[in-house]
Structure formats: structure tokens, C-alpha cells
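Regression test attached.
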Amino acid sequence: MLQRFLDPAVLHGISSLDLVAKTVVDGFVSGLHRSPEFGFSLEFAEYRAYTPGDDLRHVDWNLFARTERCYLKRYRGETNTQLTVLLDASNSMKYASGAVTKMDYARYMAASLFYLSIHNQHDPAGLIVFDDEVRNYVRPSTRVGQLPRLLAGLEQAEPAARTDFGKPMKHFQQFLRRRGIVLVISDFYEEPETIVKTIEPLRFHGNEVVLFHVLDAKEIFPDLRGPAVLVDLETEQRLEVIPDYVKHQYRAKMDRHLAEMREKTQAAGMGYQLLTTDKPLDKALTEYLTLRQASGAAGRSTHRGGV
Amino acid sequence: MGFLAPWFLAGMAAVGLPVFVHLLRRQTTVPRPVSSLMFFERGTQSSVRHRRLRYLLLFALRALLVLLLALAFARPFLRRKTVLASDKLLVVVVDDSFSMNAPTGAGAGTKLDEAKREALAVLGGRSGTQKAQVMALGGQMEVLTQPVEDAGELRAAVAGIEPGDGHGTFGELGRGMRAMAETVHTPMEVHLFSDMQQMNMPGNFADMVMPGNVALVLHPVGTAATPNWTVESVEAPGQLVDPKKARVIAVVAGHDTPAATRTVSVVVNGVVTATKKVDVPANGRATVAFDSLDVPFGESKCAVKIDAADGFPNDDASEFAVKRADPERVLFVHQGSDGRSPLYFGAALAAAAQASFVLQPIAPEQASDIDPTKYAFVVLSDVPSVPSILEHTLEKNVEDGGSVLVAAGTAMSHREHIPVYGGDVADGHYYTSGSAADAGFTTVGDVDAAHPAMKDAEGWEGAKFFYAAAVDPGSARVVARLADGTPLLIDKQMGEGHVLVFASGFDDLSNDLPLQPAFVAFVDQTARYLSGEERVGGARVVDSFVQLRNPANETAGAGSASNHATVDVIGPDGKRPLSLKEAAAAESFQLSHAGFYQIHFANGRDALIAVNPDRRESDLEPIPDDVLKLWSGSGNANGVVPAESDAAAEERENVSGIWWWFMLVLTIVAVAESIVATGYLGTQREEA
């Protein structure tokens, strides 16, 4: 039932970003066929035979009563993964062929991720809004009121200016000192090599970096029936183009761009997801959870309780 | 094409609006925002050109819309500026009257052959798209084709014209053309191929004048003066009893001929029975009489021939049919006390009718079992009472074609109705009673000379009538009236037969007519009429009609046997011209060819009828040239259209507005423009 609320067109009708996030996450989680109370709190791992010196608090006395054998219960240790979302708020994100702009879609996605991270996973989450400068920064935290702060940051993130990854990148470095998951949401209208070069340093701190490439479907498959004058949303530059060019050369260039983005980001050890604004948001959430799980597995330590 | 409101054409300047919008105005488009122009390249020039081409259809429709609107308001109309040759209807009229059988004298066949050759030449000279119509002018106008362009059909129609025996009249041509002009409004060019006989002219020249849109072109054929002798008329009995008492009187006429002696022969059934020579004066007539006609019993085909040796041998003989039979009996019913009536009537009958009838007087009481069909006719002479059996028999006989002559004399003065006749009768007038004129008698006031019984009605004025019955004529034909208007002789058709009522007696008491010479002629003609001999015998003229059955009897639906009896006509060529359906219903038949017709009438009678061409056709003198020029309507011989001004006037009237056609096309264009524009608008929206 809640699955349909993963559709961006439906979410567009919901004004509150908080509600959007809640709707998306609840719908997504219910779609996983798991308890909505899913969590990573203390989790049973295995039984181990008691050896002298072990803490008696961890003996499973119920089992002992039934079997007269002494076993210890072992639990998986709980880790917290910091989530930082880098949101591109340049003018190009205003583009929309339908009701939902790329910026809207990015907001929904970011809000959903924040909600999932803070509300469900109790992970600290932060936000950096940038265009050619860092416009807003919300420090990652799990404190009470963090989620509203993040959502307010998303609400205030209105597209302006043009994208420039190079300039704000040095600021990213100072903000991201603790390792975690870094999600970059942008339309990436830049040379793939430049993008990778600019973002790659984030990985050096041990961050898992994933690029969410948000595009409108009409940007990939433009439908131009006649000659038209096109205006660049960022530079205001005008250009007359003909359908024949768009139908052939543009498509080829765009395909090559997307392929290069995928190849170069993967080669740099970064994740890459192409998202179109007409697709549901679950893809992004799944990606996050997968990354978190992988991140958790990497830093997992099976330890005795209280150790 | 013209315009009734040409100033509205100024509205065509509005076509500049779509021209400006589509071609002159700089193409502006709503810019489409895109995220980045990173992957786009410029394509300006081809873009504009493509756009212009794309909207070319819309531009054309809009420009057409403006033009049509301006044209429609200018109220365009069409008129025929000039009458093209192909618009004229070519009417070819070939004279196929009897005189066209005469040779041309040049050894090139008859005049008809030459006329047909010239007609074919005229048809061959027309343009392929000009419609033409072929007619034949004989005794009447005969339309051989409809107005067609097919040259083969026209040539076949001309080639199929056969020599006729009728008498043509140019009055008929004038009437036909005037009737055509009422339905065919295009100009017509009538080509007449004829020998232009003067005798073909009608009595009134106005009858042959062509209507305004007809141009008459005359093609005289063989108009050279040709001397021609002919047997103009033959007077011979249709029925005779004694060949030695029969007289045949023939008139030989010469047209444009010198004085000459001609040999006249009587031919009976192909055998010359008598020959005489007669001197015919120059361009005059001569009468020759034969005192006997030696014919066998039965019907005989006879003719009077001359050795004309002229240029037109077809009219050198005049045919007639004669029937030789024993004298027919006439039943004369009279009172025993009345001895005068059979005396006078019988004497008159014996003196006249070439002794073809024998009177058989009889008293009424003896006539009960008489079969009237054995008698030529029955006379009821002043009989106050007729046996009912006889009356019924007579009525039936009359219904089947028999005839009765009733004399209503003083003896019938107290009867309320006349036997067989059936009409009411009031008390008669006794002019001797002193209530009339001082002379004590009355005379005949009015005579219908067209009635067969009154054909030679001379001397009736001298007859004195002292008594006349007051017979109600009803719907019957009053043949003669007395001076005071009292019907004297009434002819009533009953079934196939006739009842003739004489409102006085045949004795010399109620009138003195039996003492007059006119009485013999009256009895003679009446006997012929009532016996039926007058109706069928003798010779006829081509194109005359013969009555096959009584039309009144048909419409009345009388139950007589003849009502449904078929007639049988055998033409001169031995063929039956009537179909079975026509033979069962035709009331009359036109004798369209010369020769002998064998006819079996509906009332059972048979007759052999000789038909001769109209002798006016024998006068080959052509119409003078000045009259022909006058007829063709011009002072020159080319036969130019006489009423060009009329035709031109008709052209001016032939104006038809076509603005509504423009409005119709405009509506269609407006719909098309809406569809095309809507399509483009939808595309622009998608692009935006």
C-alpha cells in the first residue's frame, strides 16, 4: 500500500518534507517484508561453551536449567555509520520535464535517507549543500532535533548559481574528518574525469562515496519535434538546435557521458547510481542500506557482551 | 467571369496578413530551458528553413481563405461571352415528301438521294463536339435522332430516310421549330434539304417563320423547272352493280407543260380495260370520262394511268378500289296506308346510287321475324308502332354496326319516343295551322354540309315543310335544322352503327322534299352513308386517317361484340403495320403510304382502300428565290441568322452567380485550416 508513495510524482503532492521522508521510508521498509522495528541493537550471534574466567552475566541460565550445560550467549556489537549528503543546488537542478524537478527529487531522496538513517538506524547524518560554493552545512549528529535541522536545510536549498565541484571540495575535506558514508547527489554536468578527480579525495579518509546521478528522463531521451532555441539554466546561454542533431549526436554524447561516469567512478572505488526523476526512490534507499551493511561488515567486531 | 461588386476585391490585399505572419515576420519561438548545453550544438539556418517549409501548407490555406472571402463578397458570376459553334445545335431536316421521289434530271438519282448526300456533307463538316439532330419532313415532322454528337448515329439516321408519299408543308417545319425553341434555349442552325415546292408553303407565311434563336439555312435540291403531267383526280364509284352504268371521270393536269395529247387508260387488276386520248392544254387540265368500268365481282384494284413520259413518272397513275356486288336490299317498313313513302324513296334510290340498292317495302306487322343483318340498312317510315321484337332486333343490329333511318312523320306525332332512336319526342309542329308564317310552311335553315348524308345538299332551301316532329337531339349530331331551329335531321351513334332520324315524313304531305331534286341526292348519300359504303370505299390521300372502330363505343364500354374485336390492316407492301396490341385497341389508322390497303374493321366489314399521294406534290414549281431569302431571314443567299440580336440578348440574360461556390470552398478551406493549425499548435505546446 505504501509502495506507491515511493513514486516521486505522488510525493510531489506532499508539502511537508518530513512527511515525505516518513512516507518513503515506511513504504520502503514495509516493502522489505521485515518488521518496521527493524534495528541494529544488541543482536544474538551464537552460543559458546563456558570457560572459566568468562563473565557469569552472559551465561544463559535458562539453557542451563534445561540442559544443565553452561553456555554463554554471544552478541554482535552495534556500530554507528555517519551519513553525509552532498547536495548539488545549482541552477541545472531546476530542470523538469514533468512535475518533479531534479532538485525536488534530490530533496525527497535526501530527506528519506536522513529519516532512515536517524530514525531507523540511529546513525548520525549531516548535509552539505553546494553549488559553486558551500551554501549550507549541517554537522552530522544524532542529537534530538537533528532530523528537523536537516530537513530545514533541504528546504532552504534553492538552486542558484552553477556547479563547480572544485571550489567547495576543499571545504568538504575539513567537514568530513570522521569516516562514514558520503552520498553526492547531483546531475554531474561536468567532465567525468574532473568529477572523479574532485570527489576522489573523499575516499582517502575511508569514506564510502556514492554518486547519485539525478537526471530527468527527457535529458537522456530528449523529444524535440522541431527546431528550438535552448537556454542553459546555469549560464543563460542560448542555442538553436534542430531535432535531427538531438536525435542522433546528442544521444550519443549523453550515452558516452553516462558510460564514462560509471566506468571512472567504479574505477575510483566509488559507487554510482543513475536515477531518473520518474523512477521510485527505493533504489537510492536500497543503495544506502547496502552500503551501510557493507560498511558495518567491514568494521564489524563480534565481541562478548560488555567487552 | 465577372463580378457584381468588384470593389470587394480590394479585400484581397488582406492576403498580406498571412504573408507577413508566415514569411516576413521573424520566426520567434519560446526558448526551452535545459540543464546544460554541454552536449548540444548549434543548427540555426536549417532550423528556420525547415520551419518555413513546415508551415507552408498553413500559409497557403490562410492565404486561400482570404482570397476566397474577398472573391465571394465580390459576387462573381458566369456568363457566356460568345456563342461557340459547338454550342449551336445543328438540326438537319430532310424533305422526304412525295415530290422528292422525282429525279434530279442530272442522272444522279432522285432529289431525295441528292438531299441526303448534301445532308451528310453538312454533318461531316461540323466540329466533333457540336451536337446535331436529324429530322425528316414528310406529311409530318419526324424526329429521327435526339441531339447527339455521335457522327455514326447521325449518318445512319440520314441514310435511313426512305422515300415517302406524304405531302410536306413548311408550316409544319415552322411549328416544329417553334416548339423546339421553347425547350432548347441554345441557338439552333436548321439546314433544310428540300426541292422547295411552292405547294409546300402554308397559306399563311407566318406559319413557316422560324423563332428567334433559329438560323435557317436552305439547301434547294433539284429546283430546275420540270414539266409534269399527272392524273389529278379520279371519280369512280366505290361500289357498283352494273359495270355498264359505272362512270369513271379522270382529270389530267399538266404542270409547267406544253399543250399535248395524252393517252389515258383504265387499268383493272393490272389489265388495261379502256384507253382514251385527251388533249391537255398547256399548263392546264383536261377531263376524260369512261362510260363503263368492266370489273369482276368482288374487290378490284383499279387505276387510271397516263403515258406522261415526263420527269416524274410516280404520279402518272391514280388508283382506286371498286367493289362489284349484287344490289343490296333496303328494308322499308311503312304503314299499309302509306303508299307514297316507298314510292318516292324507292324511286329516288333507284335513280341514284348507281342502282346499288333495291328497296323492299314491308308492313310493320310482317317484319317481326326479319333479320336486319341481311339488309344494307332499314328504314322505319313514319311507323307509329313497331313490334317490340323488331325494335329489339334493330337495336342490336345497330349496336353491331347496322344502320336505321327513321322518318318521324305525322303518324308518329302522338308517340312519346322514337323507335330504336330512344329519344324523347314532343308534339310536332304543324306549320299549316296558321301559328307559323303566313306562307303556312317552313324551310330548311341550317345544313351541316360536312355530314356524309348532306354532301351534295343543294336545293334543300326550296323544300317546304308543313310538319316536323320535335325530337330532342340530346347528344346526337344535328345535321339539318329548320328555319325555326327545329332539328330536321339527327344522326345518333349507337354502338358501331348509326340511327338517322328525319323529323318529317317521306310522303309529299308533311313536306314537299320528295318532289325536289335534292331528295334524290339526299337518298343517294344517305343510302351510301348508312350502308357503310361511304365510309370505307373510294380513294384516299396519303396521311389521311381511317376509323377502325368507334371510339365512343370503346369509352362507353358497350358490350357489343365489336368492342373487343381486333382489326386487321394489310398495307400496300403486304405487311401488317399494326401490332397485335394496336390491332386490339387502335381507333384509327393513318394511311401513310400510297397503294391498296386491305382493312378488316372492328364491325366485321372488309374494305379495299386505294391511297394516292397528294396531287399537290405533282406541282414541282419551286418557291421563288426572293421568298426563300425572305424565309431564311436575310438579304443574301447565305442564310445568316435572322435574329442575332435576340440571341445576343439571351446571352446577356444568361448570367449565373457562383458566389456560393466560393463560400462552399471557403468553408472547406476554413475547416482544413483549423485542423492544420490545431496540429501545429499541439506540436508547439509539446515543444514548449
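Expected vs. actual: identical. Residues 1-5, 33-41, 297-307 of chain A have pLDDT under 50 and may be disordered.
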